[in-house]
Amino acid sequence: MKIDLHNHTIHSDGILTSEELVKRAVLNHVDIFALTDHDSVFGDDEIEEIAKKYGVRVIKGLELSTYYKGESVHVVCLFKNNIIPQSMWDFSRNLKEKRRKRAIDMMNKIHDIYGLNIDLDELLKGEVITRANMLNNIAKCNNLPREEAAKYIRNDSKAYIPSTKMSTEDGVKLAREAGCVVIFAHPCLIKNQDYVEEILKYGFDGIEVRYPSEKNDEEKFIELAKKWNLLISAGSDCHRGAEADGDHGDIGTCTLNEIEFEPIARLLYFEI
């Protein structure tokens, strides 16, 4: 059995529709996967219904974008009984509106300052709009490589507008109050690794020990899980399917087996 607990769709910054992600799960022999779109629950119910038609099982969740001492820290939240907590619906709706306004303002600045083509109608089709979505829009509309388009949305861009930021402490608190199973996503991507154990003090249930980045050290994080009495998790962080890049794999790249998943399943009241 293959279980992948970290994946994205067009409901955040992925390029796959819900059905496309399910089809790739089938192709890659994934039995159970979690949908963890960034700060968004809008695709959870949809993908659950689609997955039933293909004989795949889905765990509903989301991935909170938080910050600790200037570092981006992502928190995977999995929902018990596969029920989306009301607080996560409220959070997703509120953040959606803030991000839509920011995206419109920032893209208009990119057009005015740099003279680039933009397609706001296409951009605003997404449920949650991140800088990754803006990057894709700029690259497509101007026939630019993604690396070239990225410079227009970076923090040092003249068009940059800061996002609404949530502290990791507040993010974990939100997740715990909502009754989620809380997992520290890709700790290998934290630039200052001294921060990892500081972050763990906020109270996680698990830590992602398997991740497709070459920066990942599975044994190191397994030892950390033992030290902090945490459950181990695995996630491919699928964003682009077969077009996987350096830090994101195709669904099924990094998985747990049934025995490894069982402790998390118990917390989720998820019957294997």
From TrEMBL:
Transmembrane segments: none
Protein name: Polymerase/histidinol phosphatase N-terminal domain-containing protein
Molecular function in Gene Ontology: 5'-3' DNA exonuclease activity; 5'-3' RNA exonuclease activity
Polymerase/histidinol phosphatase N-terminal domain location: 3-68
InterPro entries hit by this protein: PHP_dom (IPR004013), PHP_domain (IPR052018), Pol/His_phosphatase_N (IPR003141), Pol/histidinol_Pase-like (IPR016195)
